[in-house]
Automatic annotation (TrEMBL):
Database matches in InterPro entries: EIF3C, EIF3C_N_dom, EIF3CL_C, PCI_dom, WH-like_DNA-bd_sf, WH_DNA-bd_sf
Keyword Transferase set for record: no
Main subcellular localisation: cytoplasm
Localisation: Cytoplasm
GO cellular component: eukaryotic 43S preinitiation complex; eukaryotic 48S preinitiation complex; eukaryotic translation initiation factor 3 complex
A Pfam family matched in the record: EIF3CL_C
Gene Ontology BP annotations: formation of cytoplasmic translation initiation complex
Subunit structure and binding partners: Component of the eukaryotic translation initiation factor 3 (eIF-3) complex.
Protein name, entry field: Eukaryotic translation initiation factor 3 subunit C
Annotated signal sequence range: none
PANTHER family for this protein: EUKARYOTIC TRANSLATION INITATION FACTOR 3, SUBUNIT 8 EIF3S8 -RELATED (PTHR13937), EUKARYOTIC TRANSLATION INITIATION FACTOR 3 SUBUNIT C-RELATED (PTHR13937:SF0)
Bias type Acidic residues, positions: 12-57
Length: 869
């Protein structure tokens, strides 16, 4: 049956019917006339099929197979299509013709808005084409200019007769096109050609010179790179074949064409980036001039960066190291040819791929590229790589070693950019130099001085001896503090906005890290960033938070408790320390972040070696809050006005939760140690409190841990004394200073100074008798519960009145204030809610949002003064 299925003949239906007839035919029976005619027709069809192509004449299974001759023809046609490479000149001419066609069509249909847009593109394209024609204007453009002038003039005259038929915007575009065409026809560059075309258009167009395009002849020997070895192959030898059956021939003359084809295919879907990298590596080996090597290296570094995508993660370590080596090689070539080539952004690209540019002695030839962009991308890719590695493994440490190579590349790029800035005509590159200096400052500001000096010294060791920097000379490598000052001072003088703000923050961070808290605080106040930081980008806000925290830690190490709590309160007062410091993404239960926002937030994270220890930060904040809150809680029982004062809400919340817990076990973590130490301190047991605080192992991470523990012990003794006096003052008439000195293991002079400070701040109603060495307490009037509630009501009413006045002023837009200044109905200068001095009542309590020290916030109004008297 299979042989009958594959029998020769016409269609499958006809062959099957014929076979059935032969099966059921009777022997000896002659065929009928119809059968004879069908046989004759089949013979004619067979003859015609033999004259046709092999594919049409194939029968049976051969009809489903493609003939080798047809396949060879298709391969040849595909190869011819693949080999055809249009020159840049042809592309420009095609683009010119397309813009002319679009402009003429738009003006014909009366769409002058689109016509104006296309005409502007056309005018911008003509100078580029004129460069390729040796400065001659394309005659097709002159013809188009004259034709458009006639068409626009005719439309303008019609519009005068019937002005209502064209809208205002289209009419405005018509006038604009008319003015542009008139200006171009009178221009010196085009006026002669326009007049020649108007005199004799046919003769003008016939004068078009024929430009001979050199056709590259096939060489008998070409360099073919196979693997790592360059071999010579003749016409009869083997050739390197790439994907799709294309023959890959790499010669110095074809380098620019290959680079252009690779540049045009970048970003397209399905592009094999690894193949592009291999091609450019071969082109780099084949390159014969420094210009070719520079062009290939610029493209190769860019393609290596394309292997990293926003969703695919960072570059591989191998690709990053190769890109770094090629970046260093590129800068070395630029240093060696510093009198011939210069790489800058926004430079005009060389359009002619068939010949190299002609260099003029004493003139720099600009090559489009970005040295600063490549250096910044190396930095960003290293950061992304570090973020993708577990910081607690040896892989992170091994990857962190590459930071030295990166810093050296940044230094090389800075020195090169300094040279670019000095060249006449390239002064606008100063802003790009600021970016490199800021990158260096970001790598130095969080390191101790010795580590920064090592990083700088190693970077200079990799550079040639002849290179030096004007901003940071080689002599500053051993002095990290002078180096940071030089970098930040340069940015203070030559930058503004975000760059200047970050330079100030990095300088402040460095100062606070090296235990100069007052200088760091002065820098923060001098910058005024606390007022304008919400208007900056998120990265700058993160650096502001980190600097603020470091200033607070510097005050803590110096033993300045109140200043430390003020600096740390803004960041540590919430549970978002990791998020605010860019050290982790806290996944909240009811988070409204989209996946894109979450990815962007993860990309803003800092590497692990830049982190500030969150546990250490929390320990410092809770300890300073304990030293301030415990005396305040002791004073609440005797001073009702202090009930509204809260220094640290986070500490109060933790303390309340700890007191409500039924079972108190031994402390297990840092927070438990501090809370139990707070309870012991409030009970007067300062020794147990100091023992619990000093047993926290987190202090070992700070420099001079022993001095930190000694300082905390002294602060706990002082706070214990204050708490004891505030708690038991109503029960004593006099207390001997020597007794207090013995109880809290303090010197009599220290006890006397503490008591004097509390009396001066009105925290303690007592007098200090220095002759007898005793404290004499004054018994005041006990305030009843009704009186305390009345004072609270009076304060709330005052706050409500002030809020109403503020709302009224906002709604009346200041007219009420002007009315009061003019006298108003109650006399000149009188205003509601004003005291005797013309200012709002209790301004001292709320001015600047600062809280006064303990004991100074109680006024109570008239009722309070009456009770106190």
């Amino acid at each position: 049956m299979s042989s009958r299925f594959f029998a020769r003949g016409g269609d499958s239906d006809e062959s099957s019917s014929d076979s059935e007839e032969s099966l059921y035919s009777v022997e000896g029976e002659e065929p009928s006339e119809e059968e004879e005619s069908s046989e004759e027709e089949s013979e004619v069809e067979e003859d015609s099929d033999e004259d046709s192509s092999d594919e049409e004449g194939a029968t049976g299974i051969n009809r489903f197979l493609k003939s080798t001759a047809a396949k060879a023809d298709e391969d040849e046609s595909d190869e011819e299509k693949a080999v055809v490479i249009r020159s840049a000149k042809d592309k420009r001419i095609e683009e010119l013709e397309g813009l002319i066609r679009l402009t003429e069509n738009a003006i014909k249909i009366g769409d002058f808005i689109q016509g104006s847009t296309e005409f502007d593109k056309l005018v911008k394209l003509v100078p580029n084409i004129a460069k390729q024609l040796d400065g001659r204007t394309p005659k097709l453009f002159i013809k188009t200019l004259v034709d458009l002038e006639a068409a626009v003039t005719e439309a303008y005259e019609k519009q005068k007769v019937t002005p209502k038929k064209m809208n205002a915007l289209n009419s405005k575009s018509l006038n604009a096109v008319r003015q542009k065409i008139r200006k171009l026809t009178k221009d010196e560059q085009y006026s002669k050609d326009v007049e020649a075309y108007r005199k004799d258009s046919e003769a003008f167009l016939k004068e078009e010179a024929v430009i001979e395009i050199p056709v590259p002849t096939k060489k008998t020997k070409v360099n073919l790179l196979l693997g790592d070895a360059i071999i010579d192959a003749d016409d009869a030898g083997f050739e390197v074949v790439g994907p799709g059956g294309k023959t890959l021939i790499y010669t110095p003359e074809s380098i620019l064409k290959h680079l252009r084809s690779i540049a045009e295919s970048r970003g397209r879907k399905g592009t094999d980036r690894n193949e592009q990298i291999r091609v450019m590596e071969r082109l780099l080996d084949v390159a014969a001039t420094d210009y070719q090597r520079i062009r290939v290296l610029l493209s190769l570094i860019s393609v290596r960066f394309d292997t990293s995508t926003s969703s695919g993660g960072a570059m591989t370590v191998e690709q990053w190291k190769l890109a770094d080596k090629e970046f260093v090689k590129l800068l070395e070539l630029l240093y060696a040819n510093q009198d011939q080539f210069i790489v800058i952004e926004n430079a005009e690209e060389w359009e002619d791929d068939e010949k190299h540019p002609t260099l003029v002695a004493g003139t720099l030839f600009p090559i489009p590229g970005s040295i600063v962009g490549a250096a910044e991308r190396l930095d960003d890719e290293l950061t992304r790589s570090l973020l993708s590695i577990d910081p607690h493994t040896s892989d992170y440490v091994a990857r962190l070693v590459d930071e030295g190579a990166l810093y050296s590349a940044l230094l090389r790029a800075q020195i090169y950019q300094e040279r670019v800035r000095k060249q006449p005509g390239f002064e606008g590159q100063a802003e790009r130099l600021n970016s490199l200096i800021l990158r260096r400052l970001e790598h130095l500001h969080f390191r101790q001085g010795r580590l920064g000096s090592v990083l700088e010294t190693n970077a200079w060791a990799e550079l040639p001896e002849g290179l030096d920097s004007d901003v940071t000379p080689r002599a500053l490598a051993s002095d990290a503090e002078a180096l940071v000052k030089a970098l930040s001072n340069y940015l203070f003088a030559h930058s503004e906005g975000i760059q200047r703000a970050r330079a100030m923050l990095h300088r402040t961070y460095w100062t606070a890290l090296h235990d100069r808290p007052w200088e760091a605080k002065d820098l923060m106040l001098l910058s005024h960033l606390s007022e304008t930081i919400p208007s900056f980008d998120i990265i700058t806000q993160i650096h502001y938070n980190r600097t603020l925290v470091q200033v607070g830690l510097a005050f803590f190490r110096a033993g300045l408790i109140w200043e430390s709590q003020t600096a740390l309160q803004e960041i540590c007062g919430s549970n978002r320390q990791k998020e605010l410091l860019a050290q982790g993404v806290q996944v909240q239960r009811y988070s409204s972040l989209t996946p894109e926002q979450e990815r962007a937030e993860r990309a803003r994270q800092l590497p692990f070696h830049c982190h500030i220890n969150i546990e250490l930060l929390e320990a410092c904040y809770l300890v300073v809050s304990m030293l301030l809150e415990i005396p305040l809680l002791a004073q609440i029982g005797t001073a009702p006005d202090q009930k509204r004062r809260v220094i640290s809400k986070a500490f109060r919340r933790l303390l309340d939760y700890s007191e409500r817990s039924v079972f108190q076990g031994p402390p297990e973590n840092t927070r438990d140690h501090i809370l139990q130490a707070s309870k012991a301190l409030s009970a007067g047991d300062y020794k147990k409190s100091a023992e619990l605080i000093n047993s926290i192992k987190i202090w070992d991470l700070m420099p001079k841990a022993l001095e930190i523990r000694t300082m905390l012990t002294e602060k706990i003794k002082t706070t214990g004394l204050e708490t004891y006096l505030l708690t038991y003052a109503p029960f004593y008439s006099t207390v001997n200073l020597a007794t207090l000195s013995e109880m809290f293991d303090l010197s009599p002079r220290s006890v006397s100074s503490i008591v004097a400070r509390m009396i001066s701040h009105e925290e303690l109603a007592a007098a200090l008798d220095q002759v007898s060495g005793a404290i004499i307490f004054r018994k005041g009037v006990n305030i009843s519960r009704l009186q305390a509630l009345s004072l609270t009501l009076s304060e709330k009413a005052t706050v409500l009145i002030e809020a109403n006045e503020k709302t009224l002023e906002q709604r009346t837009q200041g007219t009420a204030n002007a009315f009061e200044r003019q006298g108003g109905p109650g006399g000149r200068g009188r205003g509601r809610g004003r005291g005797r001095g013309g200012g709002p009542q209790n301004m001292g309590d709320r001015q600047g949002g600062q809280q006064r020290p303990r004991g100074q916030g109680f006024t109570g109004g008239a009722l309070g003064r009456a009770i106190q008297s």
